[in-house]
Amino acid sequence: MRKTQWFDFRNFFHKSPSNPSTKPRPLIAYSFVPFSPVAMLDPTILTIGGIVLGIAIIERILERWGVIDLVDQFSKVMRFILPVTFYGALFYFFATFMF
């Protein structure tokens, strides 16, 4: 035969422990956010890279065809666009994926 034992809810949950528990040692935890190269597959990053790569390929094709004046214009534009695009994409990447 099973005997049921009744506990007073308030006394059961608010009773101080009978033996003092040991204090946990402080744990020093470090946080590390790994960099994933998969994050570079963002459509915005891929579009910017594709446009720059496309302009570079067009510049090489025009150079083979002998249209040096147009290639010179492309190179002047690319001298400005490449650093702006690179730093803009880098800023976008860090602003989007790191925070």
Shape: rod-shaped
Distance between the termini: 63 Å
User: Please, what is the average pLDDT?
Assistant: 78
Indicate the percent of residues in helices: 55-70%
List the helices and strands and how they pair.
Layout lengths: L8 H5 L29 H23 L2 H30 L2
Helix pairs in contact: 2-3
Question: Mind explaining what this structure looks like?
Answer:
With 99 residues, the chain is an all-alpha fold. Helix content is 59%, strand content 0%. It has helices at 9-13, 43-65, 68-97. Helix 2 (43-65) runs antiparallel to helix 3 (68-97). The chain is rod-shaped. The model has no long low-confidence stretch (mean pLDDT 78).
Keywords:
mainly alpha, 99 residues
Quick rundown:
This protein has 99 residues and is mainly alpha-helical. It has helices spanning 9-13, 43-65, 68-97.
